[in-house]
Automatic annotation (TrEMBL):
Family note: Belongs to the CvfB family.
GO molecular function, one term: nucleic acid binding
Superkingdom to which the source organism belongs: Bacteria
Transmembrane residue ranges: none
Domain S1 motif: 151-211
Designated name of the protein: S1 motif domain-containing protein
InterPro entries listed in its UniProt record: CvfB_fam (IPR014464), CvfB_S1_2nd (IPR048588), CvfB_S1_3rd (IPR048587), CvfB_S1_st (IPR039566), CvfB_WH (IPR040764), NA-bd_OB-fold (IPR012340), S1_domain (IPR003029), WH-like_DNA-bd_sf (IPR036388)
PANTHER family: CONSERVED VIRULENCE FACTOR B
Annotated coiled-coil segments of the chain: none
Species classification: Bacteria, Bacillati, Bacillota, Bacilli, Bacillales
Length: 282
C-alpha cells in the first residue's frame, strides 16, 4: 500500500476507534471519523490511502474530488507566504498548490473561496499537491460563443494570468480574454469576475472588458474624484491641465476619462477649478 491509491480492502478486525483493513499482506487503520457509511456487515471496503496528521499510513472512505487522472474545480482554503495556497480536495487534509504553479506576484494569488481547476498528485511520503490544469486540459471545457453574445455581460473564473492579459472561463464554458487596457486592476487567479463581451472571435472565444460602459463610467469616475476631493477637505492639485501620468497614477484613469468626469462635475455645479486646482463647491 502507498499514499494516493484507491483500493478495495478486506476488513481484518474492528476496534473501539475504527477498523483495521488488509490487502492480504499489510494492514491500515480506517478511523471512525473517516467512515462515511455503515460497514458493519461488509467484508470489503473501498478506501483512499493517505498519510494522517501523525505521519501514519491511514485509510478514508472519503473520495478525493480530483485525482492524478481527473481534473476538477477545488476551492482555496488558505494562503501561505512563500509556500503557495491550499485547496480543499474533499479529504481531511488539504493539498498544496506550490508557488511554481502560481503567478510571480502574491498580490494576484488566489484567496480563500477562489477556485482552481486542478489535478492531484500524492508523493510516496503522503504529501498532497494540486496542480492547475494547462491550457490543453481546460480547453476540453470550452464551448463556442455565438454573435448573440456581443455586448452581453458574462461571469466566469480567472484560470490563467500572463503579461498580456487575463483568461477566464465563463459559467457557459466560453473562453474569455481581458486585455490590461480593459480593466482597472489585474484580477486574482481563481477569482470570479463579471465583464462585457466586446468582441466575438472566429475561434469561438471572446474578448471582454471589466470597465463600465462610458455612460456608466462617467458617474463611477466622477464619484471617485469626489471621494478623493473630500479626503483632502475639498481641494486637490489636479485639473484638466494635469499631466496624464499624474492622473493615471492617482486615479487609474486616462486623461480623457478624467476630463469627461471632471467636466460632468463642473456642469452639474459640484466642483470648480482655479489656478490648476479643483475645489468642491460648498
Amino acid at each position: 500500500m502507498r499514499p494516493g491509491q484507491q483500493l478495495t480492502l478486506s476488513i481484518d478486525h474492528q476496534t473501539d476507534f475504527g477498523y483495521f483493513l488488509t490487502d492480504g499482506e499489510d494492514t491500515v487503520l480506517l478511523h471512525n471519523s473517516e467512515i462515511t457509511e455503515d460497514i458493519e456487515d461488509k467484508d470489503e471496503v473501498e478506501v483512499f490511502i493517505y498519510v494522517d496528521s501523525q505521519e501514519r499510513l491511514a485509510a478514508t472512505m472519503k473520495k478525493p474530488l480530483i485525482s492524478f487522472y481527473d481534473y476538477g474545480w477545488v476551492e482555496v482554503t488558505d494562503k501561505v507566504e512563500d509556500m503557495g495556497v491550499f485547496v480543499d480536495v474533499g479529504l481531511s487534509k488539504d493539498a498544496l498548490v506550490a508557488t511554481e504553479h502560481l503567478p510571480p506576484y502574491e498580490s494576484v494569488w488566489p484567496q480563500k473561496g477562489d477556485r482552481l481547476y486542478c489535478m492531484l498528485k500524492v508523493t510516496n511520503r503522503g504529501r498532497m499537491f494540486a496542480k492547475p490544469a494547462p491550457e490543453d486540459i481546460i480547453s476540453e471545457l470550452f464551448t463556442d460563443a455565438g454573435e448573440e453574445m456581443m455586448n452581453k455581460e458574462l461571469t466566469g473564473t480567472v484560470y490563467r494570468l500572463i503579461a498580456s492579459g487575463s483568461f477566464i472561463i465563463t459559467d457557459e464554458g466560453i473562453r474569455g480574454f481581458i486585455h490590461p487596457t480593459e480593466r482597472k486592476e489585474e484580477p486574482r487567479l481563481g477569482s470570479r469576475v463579471t465583464g462585457r463581451v466586446i468582441q466575438v472571435k472566429e475561434d469561438g472565444s471572446v474578448n471582454m472588458s471589466l470597465l463600465p460602459r462610458k455612460q456608466d463610467a462617467l458617474s463611477v469616475d466622477a464619484e471617485e474624484i469626489l471621494t478623493y476631493l473630500r479626503s483632502r477637505n475639498g481641494a486637490m492639485p489636479y485639473g484638466d491641465k494635469s499631466h496624464p501620468d499624474d492622473i493615471r497614477e492617482r486615479f487609474n484613469l486616462s486623461k480623457a476619462a478624467f476630463k469627461r468626469a471632471l467636466g460632468h462635475l463642473m456642469k452639474t455645479g459640484r466642483v470648480y477649478q482655479e489656478n490648476g486646482w479643483t475645489y468642491e463647491k460648498q
